[in-house]
Amino acid sequence: MTRILMVCLGNICRSPLAEGILRQKIKEKGLDWEVDSAGTSGYHAGSLPDTRSIGVAKAHGVDILDQRSRPLQHADFLHFDLVYVMDKANLRDVKAMAPNVELAKKVQLIMDLVHPGEHVEVPDPYWNDNGFEGVFQMLEEACSVLVSQAELSKY
Ligand code: 4NP
Q1: Which residues line ligand 1 (CB under 6 A)?
Q2: At residue 155, does pLDDT exceed 50?
Q3: Containing structural domain, residue 33
């Protein structure tokens, strides 16, 4: 089983979308994966995703209402195989929390799946009401690549 963790700052805007999109795709493809999300901060621990993320997800047929924000924990670095982050601040913060250098290698920018080595960031939409659709599209693209890589590796 592949275990994937999506991480952003608050775990209310971007990473819940990434989790919801990937969950939907693995269900469609019948993949036996575990998917979760977390935040580098605990500011919103226990909260539902941001209403704007819930809305954009719903508009695309993705339900994220069962999610609640939680902070990243040390145990996550052992449990998950891959940790995808949204921006360079997340990358720095998450790598800094990794128990050792080897486990820090599990942490990658999610858009590197689409544009390898270009270090494209998924912008924080928290202060930008119009940013949510673009964020959804970026994460949709990245999750499509992730799932198609898994299909290729079956053969
Ligand atoms: P997220 O967005 O990291 O995509 O969940 C944010 C959510 C909350 C805050 C910042 C970004 N905040 O400052 O509370």
Answers
A1: 8-14, 43, 124, 126
A2: no
A3: 2-153
